[in-house]
Amino acid sequence: MGTPSPRAVLVLAVALAGLSAPQAAYRQPNFIVILADDVGWGDLGANWAETKETPHLDELAAEGTRFVDFHSAASTCSPSRASLLTGRLGARNGVTHNFAVTSVGGLPMNETTLAEVLREAGYSTGAIGKWHLGHHGHHHPSFRGFDYYFGIPYSHDMGCTDTPGYNLPPCPPCPRHGAAARVARKDCYTEVALPLFENVTIVQQPVNLSSLAARYAEEAARFMQRASHSGRPFFLYLALAHMHVPLGVPPSPPAPGRDIYGAALSEMDALVGQIKRVTDSHGKGNTLLWFAGDNGPWAQKCELAGRLGPFLGAWQRQRGGSSAKQTTWEGGHRVPALAYWPGRIPAKRTSRALLSTLDIFPTLVALAGAMLPPNRRFDGLDVSPVLFGWSDVGHKVLLHPNSGAAGKDGEITALRLAQYKAFYTTGGAMACDGSIGPAEHHQPPLIFNLDRDIQEQEPLDVASREYQAVLPAISRAYAQALEDIATDNVSVADYSKDPAVTPCCNAQHVACRCQAPGTHAAVLDCRTERRATRLCL
């Protein structure tokens, strides 16, 4: 919440003027991937009529293609992001659950990122926003193919701030006066402030979340402007802090209830609108903008969580727990997705192709004229024929890994085959009422026909002709998928922890503040902060 600062508006205006430098001679297109955090399928007005807070995203949908059967590669943060940047499921790339503030490791170093491939192909590469794939040593984005990084190394609730905003349970601000002022609270990070990085330097700790959206827009515009002046095509990975929980504090607190979430959704929408304006000024025919969510909404946050739309996971909800984030129900991994590329991607089109964030890697690599990394298999597809409207055929089979609600993290116990969804394991994440659905194993699997039962309410009767007709195909697809993973070049992530690797600007100050509270340095503008702070890896 909040509006862009005059400085941010000035930077965007300069970018709009500066990005007119011709790049038509370059055949390689620019790429912008915007990834929203914990956004619900129903948080997009073009998807769900009840949503009124997304006019800019709805404009993108009207001027591009909307994908209504699009899925995140996992239903929680780190695995979803690792899969987007590698084109491989966590069962292959090793990232099966979230990294911590104290994590020593990250995305395994033998995994090749999309940024590394594109940089090798001549692209200027930038990452802005949430990383959550390791921050210590060479796991930092500056060593994973990105020429420029500006953002927070993990989720924006994984550190304290001076203005905590809205959360359930509410969290206290960062301590200011030593151990006596510290308040321990379950689910809250109170010891170390949330850091903001520029490349490998902490430029603010704690970060001011209320101005973060404006700063992201500003840095994105600057990055695109620099790339345009360099004459190189660019790849911008913009991983938003929105939605998660609305931790930014608006200038005027909204009315209680859904309005809090709606205000944050409006802010995210405005940020996307700013990026689109900069993109359009650069020349509409040379930049692909792809918007998607990293997983479904965080249901345990109640009115501070997103909208599922029709994907209720009713079978699970009847047994307790949430069917959203961390689960393999549709609400956990079916996410809003849009693609915009005037003159190349058809406008006002709705695609029902079965697609995934896994497809972003191979598709952009193909469009850039680059080659996929050798000696490994990919779960994503080059879906450029779908983007360009030449086809509406996506995956024949799509795998859904366990993401925290039930079963071993990263294991494949649910899959999609055409309109059929099969579950070998089910379970519910924590719901708003505190319930957690127990893990249940199914042999033979539960099978739902999503064409008739989008709410996943009533599985097919195992004795029915339909069940008996589709079960052999599902069993074969499942066995083949497990065999393909078992015989692949599989990585293993290091999930060890050490408090010493926690990002800390100044260990001499309470909560690792860059400046002691109350000093003049603490209120300097960000350029001064950049000069004053120190490298901290």
- If strands are numbered along the chain, what order do they take across the biggest sheet? 7-6-5-4-8-1-9-10-2-11
For this structure, the quaternary state is: single chain
- Counted up, domains total 1
Q: What is the overall silhouette?
A: globular
CATH architectural name? 3-Layer(aba) Sandwich
Domain Sulfatase N-terminal: 29-370
EC number: 3.1.6.1, 3.1.6.15
Signal peptide: 1-27
Subcellular location: Lysosome
Describe the protein.
The chain is an alpha/beta fold and 537 residues long. The protein has one domain: Alkaline Phosphatase, subunit A (3-Layer(aba) Sandwich), CATH 3.40.720. The chain is 25% helix and 16% strand. It has 13 helices and 16 strands. A 10-stranded mixed beta sheet has the order 7-6-5-4-8-1-9-10-2-11, sandwiched between helices. A 4-stranded antiparallel beta sheet has the order 13-14-15-16, covered by helices on one side. Strand 6 (196-198) and strand 7 (201-204) form a beta hairpin. Helix 1 (6-18) runs parallel beside helix 7 (258-281), helix 2 packs across helix 7 and helix 6 runs parallel beside helix 7 (258-281). It is globular. It starts with 5 loop residues before the first helix and ends in a 5-residue tail after the last helix.
What's the arrangement of secondary structure elements?
Layout: H1 6-18, E1 30-37, H2 55-63, E2 65-67, E3 70-71, H3 77-86, H4 90-93, H5 114-120, E4 124-129, E5 148-151, E6 196-198, E7 201-204, H6 212-230, E8 234-243, H7 258-281, E9 287-293, H8 314-317, H9 330-333, E10 337-340, E11 349-351, E12 355-356, H10 360-367, H11 384-387, E13 397-401, E14 412-417, E15 420-426, E16 440-449, H12 465-486, H13 526-532
Helix pairs in contact: 1-6, 1-7, 2-7, 6-7
